[in-house]
Amino acid sequence: MDSTIQRLKEIIQEKAKSNGLTEFQVKQIIAIVDKTIADGLPDDAWLKDKLGLIGRRGK
Amino acid sequence: MALSVRLLSISWENIRAFHSLNAPLMHGDSHTDWPADKSIWLQMPNGTGKTSTLRLIRSVFIGRLWSKDESDTNVRGWRRITSVDKSKQAYSNAKSTFKLRLKIDDQNWAIRIELNYGANTYEFFTHHPTEGVIEGWHPPYKFKKVFEGNIRLVELFIFDGETVDRMLSQADSKLLDDAIRQFSGVAEIYGLVGDRTDGKYTGGRLTSIRNELEREVGRENSAGNAQKLTQLASLEQATIEKMETLKGEREEHKKQLADAQTDLDEVKDELRKIENNYGKKYEKALELQGEIAKRRLGMIETTEQLRLGLLNPRLTFSLKWKDFVAFHQSHIDGNLPEDVGYGWLKNLTLQKKCICGEPMTPSMSNHIRTNFSLYLDSTKRGVVSSVQSEFVRDEPQPERIEDLVSRLKMQQADIKTHQTRYEQDFAKYADPEVQVKKRSLEENQDLLSKTVSDIEMCIRHIESDDIRWLRGLGRANGLTSTGQPDLTRSAILAADNLNILGRVLEEIQSRRINAQGTHDVWNGLRTVQGTLHDSLSQLLLEQRDFISKEASRIWTGMPAAKSEGEIRLKIEDGGLNFYRGTEQERADGLSGAQERTACYSVAKSLANIGALDVPILIDTPLAGIDEDLTEEVYHAIIQEFPQSLVFLNTAEKRTMIENSWKQGFGTEVFTATIHQIGTHTDGGKLCTYTEDKTVFEELRGNSDTLPEGVA
Questions:
Q1: Phi, psi (deg, nearest 5) at residue B211
Q2: In angstroms, rounded to a whole number, what is the distance separating the alpha carbons of residues B500 and B488?
Q3: Cα–Cα distance, B304 to B493 (Å, whole number)
Q4: Integer CA distances (angstroms), B342 to B136, B220, B319, B382, in order
Q5: Average pLDDT for residues B565-594, to the nearest whole number?
Q6: Optimal mutation site among B145, B383, B526, B532, interface A, most CBs of chain A within 10 A
């Protein structure tokens, strides 16, 4: 199962790269993935904070 | 996160056919365990509670009362039956108890369900290995993570006949994908993005944030952009309505498809029966059929080579300049890989000679460089054509298209000759009315196959997310020529694809949000949703492929599929499919034994990816299987699972003894019997459990009684 999670992260990086996302954005998305797998679904405030960071860098 | 589970024992108390019973029997106050590393074949004549027990075991695994219909909350169906006379229904309303003892990661656990009919409720109790009895369903975390609430997925390990149908069914095509998600350790991520249906993400945490943002837009309409927002809201409404209309059409198509598929299956079945009957009369029929199948395989191989040939620029660009241009102008047909494009053309301009053999003059080179955009779809521009360059550099001269086409024609003619011979021989050996029936069925089959194919295409038009393909068909209404959502009302009304409308809706909603603020969270939300969904989709495809290969490997090692040669299974959008030879040839006419063992193989592969060392439970695995194939199913069960619990009826037992076990049965497997020994004082059945081999062997029929002389 760990290898599946690892593979998911690799694919995220590939997709993000081909869609022109920045390193920072990719790191934030991976952080969301890691937290969700480790602790279950994150709370809305934490998630919105991350989404805001990703959205700001995306402009 | 490996998880090991073994079944130790079952206890019933005042439930369905059981007054009070432990299997295996207890020694005083101590439970006895079933063997942890054997296949347990538990004979239970019809009416002794096989189905009820299987459902209760499923309940223990998922932490809620399992029911075929998820909305069914009535527990009264589990009451003890207190009348052996079926015409006089009587039930006990006293509390029922079911307990399953399990070894989970080397610790003994037990989970008990108590059903209270007065209040129409049930409660779980967990017998913790060190902490005693705890109220509620509290197995170890790893167990919970895999099974909790998974009312459908648990069926993959606790099988009945319907499980096989579900795995093979278009109607439940999500079952296997859900299982892959669940057992591969990334299920939580789906909790974030939900599922993507009809071009929109729904159901996950990100969707709830999205809904919240949308609600904020509704509250914050300001005078400055009120008109714009009104317009967008109106377009949004039109898009949603159009999507609903398309969904309705799709559902209608799906119903028609299911009907046509059922009719087609029936026709195929009848044809198969005729062919089988004929095959028995005429010994060369099978040989001839084999020859035809072999030639078809050859034709499929040639077709594949032709397909590759057509994609090879060395072959397709070998004619004239106008053909070369025409080829590129028609690139948008979606049948070619993305990599055909600029990179290849650019590389060509550096060559001394064009692929057509003409010298590459500066004017030609310049023409290509300045006009390539005319020949290429915009989405292909900028794509480096490394793959196509490889064709030019390294590949040996491939077979010419013309040669492949003539080979294909010869193969077709050869098949036709064999087919005609077969038909002539068939006419010689079959009755005239059978021949007429066969012809009529074949015509029907052709007609129905076409109907199925047409309806599938209609559904694909509505559902497909392959925009290039849709555009090639002229069905990309709702998108501009550059692939952006077209927000004009006429374009929305003309759109006939749910994914395109989904994109339009996304864009409208995005503009509504952007009109109000909260841009950053909204933009971040779209970025994360898009990235995660694309990534999860790719991961799912990779895992489907991996599990399909793994399950095929296991399956073809089982006797039922071994004899078929190049057969394999594949998990696809429509569920589990079977193929022979190359991709294109669907393997129809598999036996029930082959289908069942395929499903066991998939279950085993799913367990493998989830690092689950779990038993399989199967209710009447041999029901409906031809007697000469039962041994194959038997071997599949005992070979692949560390422990299995098989409920079999007396007819299946008899078949096993006659066909497989013969003498010395029970050495490979552990056998036991639950059967009725009389009527209890409460009026219901009195059942007992025994490991006596004579009882196992001698109990016959469904009458639940033993022949004279057997204890």
A1: -60, -40
A2: 13
A3: 40
A4: 64, 48, 20, 6
A5: 75
A6: B532
C-alpha of B76 from chain center: 33
The minimal CB distance from A36 to the residues B192, B523, B530 is found for: B192
- 3-state secondary structure string across B49-100: CHHHHHHHHHHHHHCCCCCCCCCCCCCHHHCEECCCCCCCCCEECCCEEEEE
Residue owning tokens 């705890």: B134
Q: What is the mean pLDDT of residues B567-578?
A: 81
Spell out which residues of chain A touch residue B188, defining contact as CB-CB under 8 Å: 36-37, 40-41
Joined tokens for residue A39: 């602790």
Which residue of chain A has the CA closest to B191? A41
State chain B's mean pLDDT as an integer: 80
Q: Quick one: pLDDT band at residue B332, thresholds 50, 70, 90?
A: very low
Q: Which H or E element spans position B400?
A: none
Cα separation, A21 vs A1, in Å, equals: 27
Tell me the sheet residues that pair with B109.
Answer: B102
Q: Which amino acid is at B20?
A: S
- In this complex, the residue of B184, B528, B534 whose CB is nearest that of residue A51 is B528
- Interchain CB distance below 8 Å, B189 and A16: no
Taking CB atoms and an 8 Å cut-off, how many pairs form between chains A and B?
Answer: 104
- ipTM value of the model? 0.96
Which of B185, B188, B524 lies at the smallest CB-CB distance from A55?
B524
Say how far apart CA B640 and CA B552 lie, in whole Å: 13
Residue B71: its pLDDT value, please? 67
A2 burial via Cβ count (<10 Å: 0-12, 13-18, 19+)? exposed
Highest mean pLDDT among B113-122, B524-533, B579-588: B113-122
Contacting residues for B227 by C-beta, under 8 A, at least 6 apart: none
Question: B643: which DSSP letter?
Answer: S
Does residue A17 carry a pLDDT above 80? yes
Q: Are B282 and B429 in contact (CB under 8 A)?
A: yes
Q: Å from B214 to nearest chain A CA?
A: 14
B528, B544, B612: best to mutate for the A interface, most A CBs within 10 A: B528
Distance CA B137, CA B210 (A): 34
Q: Which residue in A4, A29, A41 is closest to B184 by CB distance? A: A4
Confirm or reject contact between A48 and chain B (CB < 8 A).
yes
pLDDT in tens, B612-665: 899 999 998 888 777 777 887 888 888 888 899 999 999 888 888 887 776 666
User: If you search the block for the tokens 């073994």, which residue do you land on?
Assistant: B6
Q: Round to whole Å and give the CA distance between B472 and B86.
A: 63
CB A15 to CB B528 under 8 A?
Answer: no
Q: Pull the structure tokens for residue B243.
A: 């999507």
Q: Are B384 and B295 in contact (CB under 8 A)?
A: no
In chain B, what residues touch A15 (CB-CB under 8 Å)? 531, 534-535, 538
Return phi, psi of residue B20, to 5°. -160, 120
Q: Determine the residue of chain A that is closest to B523 in CA distance.
A: A55
Which residues fall within 8 angstroms of residue A44, CB to CB, at 6 or more apart? B205, B208, B209, B212
Angle, CA B475 vertex, CA B498 and CA B577 arms, to 5°: 65
Residue labelled with tokens 């890989």: B337
How many angstroms separate the CA atoms of A3 and A11, rounded? 12
Cβ atoms of residues B383 and B338 within 8 Å: yes
Chain B interface test: which of A9, A12, A28, A44 (most B C-beta within 10 Å):
A12
Nearest to A55 among B188, B520, B536 (CB): B520
Tens digit of each residue's pLDDT (9 = 90 or more) over B356-400: 556 777 777 777 777 665 555 544 443 334 334 444 444 455 677
Minimum mean pLDDT range among A47-51, B160-164, B489-493, B531-535: B160-164
